Every structure is written in structure tokens, then in C-alpha cells.
DNA sequence: TATTAAATAGACATAGTTGTCTATTTAATT
DNA sequence: AATTAAATAGACAACTATGTCTATTTAATA
């Protein structure tokens, strides 16, 4: 499967948008900066994406797919059903450290543009719901001690992940996320 | 204590900025919209606040004070030390419902402008640290069952609050925040 | 009431925004 | 090699952004 000419341009745009939307923010990033750093022409961008909002939606869709595949792959490496749940924390912790505590791209997008466009909100909801469903399956198969119900444990892990990522992005350190893992370990 | 002339203007500016920065977002809100809806002159704004960033910092400072005072007052109404911790969830849940699941103003500001100005980040860190210290004190005095250490329970509550608020602002409902309260209740 | 300070309206400068359009060059396909 | 499609540079329109400045009016104080 060789890469079409158009796909190269699309990838360059999305790579650049992903980097800039994340490190700078969506509104602060101008189309002119995207085309300059992606090294493509403005007309090319507007040929593939009808508007800046369309680009944001496409960015979120691709992010959802890439991010979730990596997460699933990481979890699948582990066989112990309880350890699978703990990997969720390792995965997110490692990501936060690597990207300089930039927080969650979906939450960022929601805070910047979730109110303004329903497609944006829908993509963010889809991604987060996907994660929650994934956690729920892992919880059911974990054989945990049932100190909490399956639903409670699922919600707990889901909220601790986001809460821990938020704490990391505010305090620029991963102590809370590390601590979250230890807490879940006790409750499994 | 009568209100000075200048203070009326400052209050009108901060009230409007608070409303717009929260409902629309910081970058999307222009100075021209602020002065128009606050019904004051542009020169007045720039007399009291040197720049838009200064206005954001001032907004966060005032928010920190007002929000925390209300939270503390709510908690102080309750005498039972364990129930005091649960009030934290009631308080935030009620706020989220009332403001249409708009999320946390500090997290929003961090996601929009935390990277761009160190004073902004500092104010956000101050507010969140203040809350964490407050929770820590309540935990120490709660007489909880010590299934988790004081530090762990503090971190858990802190992360569940932010995680629950995030979930509310994404899914536009308070189920997770409600569930968070039930979970903490079990662990107290 | 006269003085002083503050708030006002609104023009203005400068720069940036998204998005469109044209003319040209590049590359793939027949 | 000729044709077709895509990407290019860059000018341009229309609008918005922040921030400054002047001239005027309003209000508090002495």
C-alpha cells in the first residue's frame, strides 16, 4: 500500500495541527501558522478541510483512534487481569511525563471549543465513553474483591485517571497519578 | 463602608469577565465584548488592568477568594467530621448543575492560558493547592477507618472532585460526581 | 460653587484572524 | 510524451484582536 499524494498533505496538516493544538491551544493557533509549519499551501488545507473547525474535528477523530490503539496494545501485553487495570495508570503517567505534563488533549479541546461546536463535543464524548467502556470490561474480568461494585470501581478508575492527569498538568508533576495507582491497587 | 466610584467599575469589569471567560472561554472573549457588556469605556478597563492577561489574573484571584469562602462556609455548616468531606461533593455537584455543567473555571483557564503566562499558572496552582490542603485537614480530623492513609484519602478525594467535574462537563450530567460521593462514603 | 479626578465615546494604529481566488508549477496517469 | 489532477505561492477581502490617544462629560471633594 503506497501513500497517495493527497494523503501525505493530509498527514502533514494533521501532524502539525496535533502538535500546535496541544502545545499552544486551539484558538491561539492560527491557520497561517499551521500551513507554514506543515509546509503546505493554504489552498491545500482548505481543499481537505472545509474550515478550522473541521480540522479540529478531524484531529480529534485521528487522535481517538491512535491513542486508543496504543492504550489497548499496552494493556494487552499484560495477562494478569488486575495488573491490566494498573497498566492504565502507567500508560497515562508515562504519556504525561513524556509530553511535559500537557494534560489531556480531549479535555483541553472540550474546555476550548466544546461549547462552540456540537461535532467537537460529540467526538470528545465518544473518546471518553470508549475509555470508560474499556475500563468497565477490564473491571468485570478483574476478579476484584468487590469492596466496591463493578460500576463504582469503573467510575473510580475513570475519574482518577482524568483527575490525576489534571493534577499533573496543573502542578507539573505526576505524584498524584502515581498515588492513584497505589490506591486502586489497594482496592482491587 | 460606601463603594468608591472606581470600585464599581472594577466590579462591573470583573463580573462581566467572569461570566464571559467561563461561558465562552478566555481567548474567544474579546476586550471589546467585555467593555460593551460591562457598559464601561475601554480606557477605564485599561486604567484598572494593564492588559487582557492582567484581567485574567485578577479574575482568577477574585474567583479563588469567592469560591473558597463559599466552600468553607458550606462545610462549616456541618458538624460531623465525616459528613464534612461529603459536603465537598454536594457543593461541587450543586455548582455544576446550576451552571449547566460548565466544568471548573481554574482547569479551563489552565487549559487555555496556563502555558502562556506564569502568573496565570501560579494563581491556578494556588487555588488548587488551597483546596487540597483544606481536604487534608478535614481528612485528618475525620476519624476515617484508615483503609487508606490520610495522604491517600486526601489525594483520592481531590482527584475524584476534579475527575467528577470533568466528567460532568463532558457528558453534561452529574452521575459520576454523585457516584464519587457514594464511593468516598464507603471508604470513610 | 470651584476644583480635581475619573469615566466616557470613539477614532485610530497595528497586527492578526479565517477564508477565497488566481496563476503557476509539480507530479502522476494514460 | 500528452493529459489530467493536485499542490503551490501569494495577493486579497472582510473582519476582529489588543492597546493607545484625545476631547468631552460626569461626579466627588474642598
TrEMBL record, chains A, B:
<dbReference type="GO" id="GO:0003677">
    <property type="term" value="F:DNA binding"/>
</dbReference>
<feature type="domain" description="HTH tetR-type">
    <location>
        <begin position="7"/>
        <end position="67"/>
    </location>
</feature>
<keyword id="KW-0804">Transcription</keyword>
<dbReference type="Pfam" id="PF00440">
    <property type="entry name" value="TetR_N"/>
</dbReference>
<dbReference type="InterPro" id="IPR036271">
    <property type="entry name" value="Tet_transcr_reg_TetR-rel_C_sf"/>
</dbReference>
<keyword id="KW-0805">Transcription regulation</keyword>
<feature type="DNA-binding region" description="H-T-H motif">
    <location>
        <begin position="30"/>
        <end position="49"/>
    </location>
</feature>
<dbReference type="InterPro" id="IPR001647">
    <property type="entry name" value="HTH_TetR"/>
</dbReference>
<keyword id="KW-0238">DNA-binding</keyword>
<protein>
    <submittedName>
        <fullName>AcrR family transcriptional regulator</fullName>
    </submittedName>
</protein>
<dbReference type="InterPro" id="IPR009057">
    <property type="entry name" value="Homeodomain-like_sf"/>
</dbReference>
